[in-house]
Design goal:
alpha/beta; five-stranded parallel beta sheet; 5 helices
Amino acid sequence: MSRLVYVLNGPNLNLLGKRQPHIYGHETLADVERDCTALATELGLALRFLQSNWEGQIVDWIHEAREAAAGIVINPGALTHTSVAILDALNAFDGTVIEVHVSNVHKRESFRHHSYVSLRADAVIAGCGVQGYGFGLRRIAAVAPPAA
């Protein structure tokens, strides 16, 4: 079994570090990718790190992960609160799913308190800043079967 992990990022995460740094911090998505790549190597995981502002592209990547990945770390951004399509795609994925949010969505607007993704996620990490991605990778490494 592969120990490949998809790290999927939704809308506006390409602006991480530039958009509302008082909420999301100053680290960029490139910083997150660099840190995730280093941690994945340390944990014996392979990584596919992706971002899209398009819901359908994220659904396609989840479908792709069905054939290859042990887990998905997903920060769906605003699609968290709206996308039944992402939920349906995740429901067709047999591996571990970790939902990550940089901010604590429960301290924000009430519409952000509902997550379709949480209905499938094996764990939810919110409010830990970009460190949440690393926590997600560590959890998948802990539960993924050893490399063949």
